[in-house]
Give the backbone structure.
Amino acid sequence: MSETAEGWRRVLAAFDDWITYESTEFMPWTGYFSEEGLRGLTNAETIAWMNNMISEIIPGRVDKCREAGVALEDFLPYMPNPETQETVRSMIDLNSRLQDTILAMSDGMSNMLDEFLAGGLEEIAGSLEAIATTEEDIRHHMSLYSQGFGRLQSLGLEIPDDFL
């Protein structure tokens, strides 16, 4: 296997792992990003959800994002020209922004937990809205990776057939 093909394998595997994590581990919990979603939970369940998001789910999401960034960094030396190099660099920059935004979501979740403990569901409306907005921003930026991969293909860097 060529070094470029191995780089593709690592990048695609990292993104596949991240997508799987998003759909199986993270997305099921996003139904609670609204007051309506939380109303069906007891106070103890709401606290458990927030703690789980802070201690497990969001850190797992950051790890998957970081792994994709490392795969892109490892892929960069195999880019054949300045245009493909710049495209991968922009994807690496996007990855850094996403990591920061996901970490900000964790901070928001911690603040929301404090608000909830202090005053209940009525106190967290603003935090819930901020987290939902942050999630929309994350989703938007995640969708930009497809543009990067499309740009690489338009510059002649094809995904090997055995990966499709």
